[in-house]
């Protein structure tokens, strides 16, 4: 009887292994589970890194990019011998871009035994989770949580630019490249990300000789009809519309601008990243849209090329900047863990203290910037880049 | 010229609210219940058209027809399964059930279609009208929405005035007990009301998604609430009231966005609602309710 049972188990294992080879999505889950059992069996300690982000919901494009990008980095690191000689386990939980669900996901990961958090992906949930990680003294690095309070605590760092930095960088970019002088802004006043960028953009625009001819807001409760905002921008004679918002609303704005016969240049931040992935979206509407993003998949440098081809093989799509941010975040964790010489048997709090001290010393050559460094407050230091959508694809500017 | 453009966009938005509000107000008038799942039936209508037109490649009119059939069937089923057994229960129990049905539909859609935004390509083929040397553009969607709203409103009023089924609806809304005594099939009449309301929701879904081309499982939620406000604004239970309420709401929303503050638009809309209800507690065209002692 026992023999029969073990045979059945072996058969099931074999089935799950073949399943691994056939498709990419279930692969992570089953290989994760397999890793777990094998490592537990050999009693060899591993680093447990958790990830949180929306893999369903309106911001799913970001979360999926982060999950896949981070998994790719973890697989590479494991194949190359792990961190400080220990293998890494990665567990990613969905939060649907919802603060409450994000905190639940954090608690679930803590139960799993997480030692460092790579997340969360979006700002509002990130702020909620940041309070919890600070209370637990858990090391946190967010790939893309760009609101200022995301890294208010000294245990938290980020890979992307902060909202104010994005706003200021956008104004500078527009001013220095003389893209436009009359700019209208449409932003979401109920969202910290959007209003944060807008405020800094407005103050920097004055220094750059940019005139903001219309500053129109919308809120989460009325984000389908933008005809009034666009009409006001059009009447004010805007040459450019700055959209510090997410791609779902931006896709509507582009469609409605087309029906109004209003064709300014649209300029956005990293939130617009993903607009080309909206199902059934007419990408010709996005032609000529510019966005400030630290990563362009068509960059010719070796690191980007290698990452893009590995990502395409694994997930069958072109990575966005969120995937790149997450990839860099995992390598930043690796660099900090190596610099701090942490081991998996240390407590969460000790690991965090060691990594905190190391983060300000390390320099990471990542996809989103060469020689990235971090300061005490957790902000990265790197050069901004912009891309333009040409023929339905990002092109470096 | 820009004022006219704001006004027309407001009427267009208001027409969508009005069509949704008609469904709310009919069900309230006849079944005396607030069907909070109404907004989500709009979403189902949107998905029915999205799948048949954008994915299966059927012609737009066939897609709209499919959406109407799907929504009508869904509305009648919901009434039969969830609401009919609660006919004698307290209004609060029915209200909670309706909210439950609303969440059920949203989450079913989430499960079936995923939460990613789908870009809805418009089913309207009417070209845009350009007036005053291109300064004023009226989109085809706007024209179709406003026309549909007027046609539906006239059709519905005629139906209620001239047909037996319509008269039965009036009778049930006046006094359900007396209507039963007169030999009217109350359950059948209420089912018919749900069928019509849901068919209207399908039309509203198509128009909403054509004008604002993004579709998620939550697409119907906010327009549903706004339309409910429109129905109360115009006088819940009254068909012309729903129409006037919807269009006024759309105009107020757009003009306050344009001339007061785009951030405060919703606050202003709901502020106007409070003032109207203070002055006329039953809404603009609502009937006075005499309390029976």
Number of strands of chain B: 4
Distance between the termini of chain A: 68 Å
Order of helices and strands of chain B: HHHHEEEHHHHEHHH
Question: Strand order of the main beta sheet of chain B, please?
Answer: 1-4
What amount of the residues of chain B lies in strands?
A: under 5%
Largest sheet of chain B: 2 strands, antiparallel
- Structural classification of chain B: mainly alpha
Roughly what percent helix of chain A? Answer: 40-55%
DSSP summary: helix tally of chain A: 12
- Pattern of helices and strands of chain A: HHEHEHEHEEHEHEHEHEEHHHEEEEE
Oligomer: heterodimer
Can you count the helices of chain B? Answer: 11
Report strand order across the widest sheet of chain A: 7-6-8-9-10-14-15
Q: Which class of the largest domain in chain A in CATH terms?
A: Alpha Beta
Per DSSP E runs of 2 or more residues, the count of β-strands of chain A stands at 15
* SS-derived structural category of chain A: alpha/beta
CATH topology of the largest domain in chain A: Rossmann fold
Show the helix and strand layout:
The complex is a heterodimer of chains A (397) and B (293).
Chain A: H1 2-22, H2 25-42, E1 47-53, H3 60-79, E2 88-94, H4 99-112, E3 116-119, H5 123-136, E4 139-142, E5 156-158, H6 163-176, E6 182-188, H7 192-207, E7 211-218, H8 227-235, E8 240-243, H9 247-259, E9 265-268, E10 290-292, H10 302-315, H11 321-339, H12 348-359, E11 364-366, E12 369-374, E13 380-381, E14 386-390, E15 393-396
Parallel strand pairs in A: 1-2, 1-3, 3-4, 4-5, 6-7, 6-8, 8-9, 9-10
Antiparallel strand pairs in A: 10-14, 11-12, 12-13, 14-15
Helix pairs in contact in A: 1-2, 3-11, 4-5, 6-7, 11-12
Chain B: H1 2-31, H2 38-55, H3 60-83, H4 91-113, E1 118-119, E2 129-131, E3 136-138, H5 140-162, H6 164-174, H7 176-181, H8 186-211, E4 214-215, H9 221-234, H10 239-259, H11 265-279
Antiparallel strand pairs in B: 1-4, 2-3
Helix pairs in contact in B: 1-5, 1-8, 1-9, 1-10, 2-3, 2-4, 2-8, 2-9, 3-8, 5-6, 5-8, 6-8, 9-10, 10-11
């Amino acid at each position: 009887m026992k023999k029969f049972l073990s045979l059945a188990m072996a058969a099931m294992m074999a089935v799950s292994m073949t399943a691994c080879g056939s498709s990419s999505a279930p692969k992570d889950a089953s290989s994760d589970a397999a890793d777990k059992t094998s490592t537990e069996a050999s009693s060899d300690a591993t680093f447990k890194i958790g990830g949180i982000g929306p893999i369903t919901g309106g911001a799913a494009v970001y979360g999926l990019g982060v999950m896949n990008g981070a998994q790719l980095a973890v697989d590479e690191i494991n194949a190359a011998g792990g961190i400080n000689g220990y293998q890494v386990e990665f567990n990613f939980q969905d939060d649907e871009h919802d603060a409450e669900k994000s905190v639940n996901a954090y608690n679930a990961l803590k139960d799993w035994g997480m030692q460092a958090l790579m997340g969360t992906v979006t700002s509002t949930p990130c702020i909620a989770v940041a309070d919890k990680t600070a209370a637990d003294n858990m090391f946190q690095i967010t790939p893309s949580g760009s609101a200022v309070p995301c890294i208010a605590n000294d245990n938290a760092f980020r890979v992307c630019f902060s909202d104010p930095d994005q706003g200021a960088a956008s104004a500078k970019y527009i001013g220095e490249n003389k893209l436009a002088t009359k700019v209208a802004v449409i932003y979401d006043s109920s969202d910290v990300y959007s209003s944060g960028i807008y405020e800094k953009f407005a103050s920097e625009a004055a220094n750059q000789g940019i005139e903001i001819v219309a500053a129109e807001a919308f809120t989460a409760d009325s984000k389908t009809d933008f005809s009034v905002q666009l009409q006001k921008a059009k009447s004010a004679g805007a040459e450019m519309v700055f959209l510090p918002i997410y791609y779902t609303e931006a896709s509507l704005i582009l469609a409605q601008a087309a029906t109004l016969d209003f064709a300014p240049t649209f300029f956005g931040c990293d939130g617009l990243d993903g607009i080309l992935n909206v199902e059934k979206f007419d990408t010709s509407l996005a032609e000529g849209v510019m966005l400030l993003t630290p990563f362009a998949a068509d960059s010719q440098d070796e690191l980007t090329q290698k990452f893009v081809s590995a990502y395409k093989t694994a997930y069958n799509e072109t990575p966005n900047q969120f995937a790149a941010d997450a990839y860099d975040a995992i390598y930043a964790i690796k660099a900090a863990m190596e610099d701090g010489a942490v081991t998996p048997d240390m407590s969460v709090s000790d690991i965090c203290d060691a990594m905190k001290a190391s983060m300000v010393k390390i320099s990471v050559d990542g996809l989103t910037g060469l020689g990235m460094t971090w300061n005490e407050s957790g902000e990265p230091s790197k050069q901004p880049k912009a891309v333009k959508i040409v023929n339905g694809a990002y092109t470096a500017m | 010229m820009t004022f006219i453009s704001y006004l027309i966009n407001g009427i267009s938005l208001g027409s969508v609210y009005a069509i949704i509000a008609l469904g709310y107000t009919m069900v309230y008038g006849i079944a005396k219940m607030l069907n909070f799942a109404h907004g989500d039936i709009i979403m189902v209508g949107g998905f029915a058209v999205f799948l048949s037109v954008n994915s299966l490649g059927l012609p737009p009119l066939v897609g709209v027809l499919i959406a109407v059939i799907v929504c009508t069937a869904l509305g009648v089923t919901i009434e039969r399964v969830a609401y009919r057994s609660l006919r004698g229960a307290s209004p609060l129990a029915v209200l909670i059930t309706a909210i439950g049905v609303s969440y059920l539909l949203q989450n079913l859609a989430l499960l079936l279609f995923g939460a990613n935004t789908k870009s809805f390509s418009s089913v309207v083929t009417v070209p845009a009208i350009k007036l005053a040397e291109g300064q004023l553009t009226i989109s085809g969607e706007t024209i179709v929405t406003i026309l549909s709203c007027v046609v539906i409103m006239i059709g519905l009023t005629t139906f209620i005035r001239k047909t037996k089924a319509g008269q039965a609806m009036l009778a049930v809304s006046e006094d359900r007990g007396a209507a039963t005594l007169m030999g009217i099939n109350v359950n059948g009449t209420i089912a018919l009301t749900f069928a019509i309301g849901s068919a209207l929701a399908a039309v509203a879904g198509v128009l909403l998604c054509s004008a604002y081309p993004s579709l998620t499982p939550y697409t119907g939620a906010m327009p549903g609430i706004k339309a409910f406000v429109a129905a109360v604004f115009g006088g819940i239970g009254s068909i012309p009231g729903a129409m006037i309420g919807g269009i006024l709401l759309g105009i107020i929303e757009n003009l306050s966005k344009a001339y007061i503050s785009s951030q405060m638009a919703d606050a202003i809309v709901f502020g106007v609602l409070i003032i109207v209800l203070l002055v006329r507690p039953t809404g603009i065209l609502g009937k006075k309710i005499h309390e029976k002692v």
